[in-house]
Amino acid sequence: MNSNIIQRKNLADEVASKLQEKILKGAYQVNQKLPIEAELMKSYGVGRSTIREAVKILVNSGFLRVQQGVGTFIEDASGINEPLSQRLKRADPQNIKEVRKILEAKIAVTAAMNRNGNDISKLEHFLDKRTTAANADQLEECINAHISFNVLLAEASKNEVLSDLYKLFAIQLKNELLDHYHDTSYFKDTSGSYHNLFDGVLRQDPQKAGYWSTKIIETNI
Predict the structure, then answer these.
(1) By its UniProt entry, which SMART domains does this protein fall under (predicted)?
(2) What is the CATH topology of the domain spanning 3-80?
């Protein structure tokens, strides 16, 4: 797939998220006409195609409606079930951290009780990759291994709802890690904690796994 298309879609998502936040905060009134494309292009510093894609996203989500030949209007969003993936994009980072603390501890405890041998092999593989990449100062590789380890831990819980829910958080977490860290110091510093977490899961010790999961997120972003 063309990388330019991917970049444009990511930009459209960002613009859509910002517009959606303004709508939810009441910056626009229900049935108010959305500013014309030229004004939106100027406000967000993007091209016409990006604005159109962002508007399309919000129309599909129910935040906007298009009246042919008239314009685009703010829809009543009070009863809309906003997709969690979109909600997370505008959530307060501290709120996300609090939810993750609960979620990850539950995942660790459940994984320690339900994991199988295949789960252990996969977890060990990505834990080793995380450690190796951290020691080699390979930040992106380290973050990829870090995310993979945590996603696999969620899958090891054998609770599909927990697993799917965590995967939504993992998408945002990866972007936050890439933005927040500029070297692998954090991953080196937490290597021991992650090995302790893994050991708790390996030994089927829910108490140990839950303890180290909570300990880890308290030092994380």
Answers:
(1) FCD, HTH_GNTR
(2) Arc Repressor Mutant, subunit A (1.10.10)
